[in-house]
Amino acid sequence: MRKKYISLLLTLLAVFTSCDDKLDITPRGFSTLNTVDDLGALLNNEWRIFDNDFYHEMITGNIFASYSTPAEVFAVKNSVEYAYIFADETVDRAILCENDYRYNEIFESIKHCNIVACKMPDIDGDQYKKSRFIAQARILRAWYHFIAVNFWAAQYDAATAATTGGIPYVDNIDFGAEKTKLTVAQVYEKILADCSDELIGCLDTTPTDDPFRFEADFGYAVRASVLFQMKRYEEAAVYARKALEINPAIEDRSTILSKGTWESTFSESHHYMFILSNYITNQSEFSSNTLTPELLSLYEKGDYVRDYSRKEDWKEYDEILVGTKGSMRYRPQGAPRVNVWGIRAEQIYYLLGECLIRTGHIDEGLDQVDKVRKYRIHPDFFKPFKGTVNTERDAMTLLSKAKTIECLLTIENFLDCKRRNTEPEYAADIVHHIDELGNYSTRPNSPLWIFPFPMNATNFNPSLTQNI
């Protein structure tokens, strides 16, 4: 069904750069954009943010995502990969960033959302449908802006957010107007308004079986994630519980025992909302990424993926492999799809777990982690975390190691690092051990944690000054 909307979306790309009065152009396959159903169909999209580099995981020290060996990267020091692998803050990443597919696609998707959110109120039709479509458009708009502000601006800090440069918040269809950059505080205020209780209440409490559409489970998860990144842990826990009450599904990776490889599609029920990371639908995101020795050391004994996948799924270091000694490349024959940019239930279990730990409920928090781990670790090796430690720091150590593996390649590890980097008790250097080239550390307050706006955006928007 989604394929028939491709021509519609391609047609709209040309429309997006035109004037407001051209939004009434009739896309192929639809009689008009002035009915509730046809306008709501703009949300029928295989949402994606193209990314073959995974710089957000490279900087966390979890992967080498380049197609060159570290020595080859080291030899060409004026490159973005060199900056992230070798923690070189002197590299002018803004000059190197002429274009950024992530930035382009995030704001193109926001345009889709804005057409629905802005035009739907003026259309006659079923009020329930109208409210639901508007809510979906605004909540998805909130999520895309949340990703953007965390990529292109500093971590939210209540003490400084009002004076920290953020991003534009695009919530209109005046495509000719300049999109003025707001402060981080202003951006988060608008994000929270776009995932309010009132809007979430317009969605169904039964999860959808369409991985690229969503209902209230994703709505609550978005609000929980935003509050979590703001370190408002008690509030975030409330919304995390609501999301899990609607959709508590956890992917069962014990199937690797019988299949010999990890198989996972974007249509499985534990995905609240799937946002694709590339244009390849039959290949795993793991296929072009090499896992660092530091990341590999975090796998627990008995992990289904690490210890029970067929041997040919794992490739050890050799002179061809992109990485260092001790690195490995994981290329599962089952081609599991990683929900790099969306949300799935497992992330919310970990989010709730940390919220509980941070507010003094250590065992209850670790129990949330154990709920996921039971489906990740073979019963012969599984031992509950609950009841093993009694301090926040020790509980956070257990949670962080398990969550890093659970959320590998997603944006979660990047978001966690940025958030914890502002806390003295959890901030830590990210160290890359590059064999004979030595060790290179990314500081918690390094400007490398903020991505540069691309020149194709800054050249046409005077307010879009760099935050790095």
**What would you call the structural class?**
alpha+beta
Largest sheet: 4 strands, antiparallel
| Spatial sequence of strands, sheet with the most strands | 1-5-7-6
Strand content: 5-15%
Q: Whole-number average pLDDT?
A: 91
The tally of structural domains comes to 2
Assembly classification: single chain
Helix content: 40-55%
Give the terminus-to-terminus CA distance: 43 Å
Q: Do you know the CATH architecture of the largest domain?
A: Alpha Horseshoe
Briefly, what CATH class of the largest domain?
Answer: Mainly Alpha
Shape: globular
- The whole-angstrom Rg is 22 Å
Number of strands: 10
Q: Which regions contain 5 or more consecutive residues with pLDDT less than 50?
A: 1-31
Number of helices: 20
Quick structural overview:
By secondary structure, the protein is of the alpha+beta class. It has helices at residues 6-16, 36-40, 55-58, 70-75, 80-85, 93-96, 101-119, 127-152, 184-194, 197-200, 216-229, 233-246, 256-259, 293-296, 304-308, 345-358, 362-373, 392-406, 412-420, 455-458, and strands at residues 63-64, 165-168, 181-183, 271-273, 290-291, 314-316, 328-330, 343-344, 430-433, 439-442. The chain starts with 5 loop residues before the first helix and ends in a 10-residue tail after the last helix.
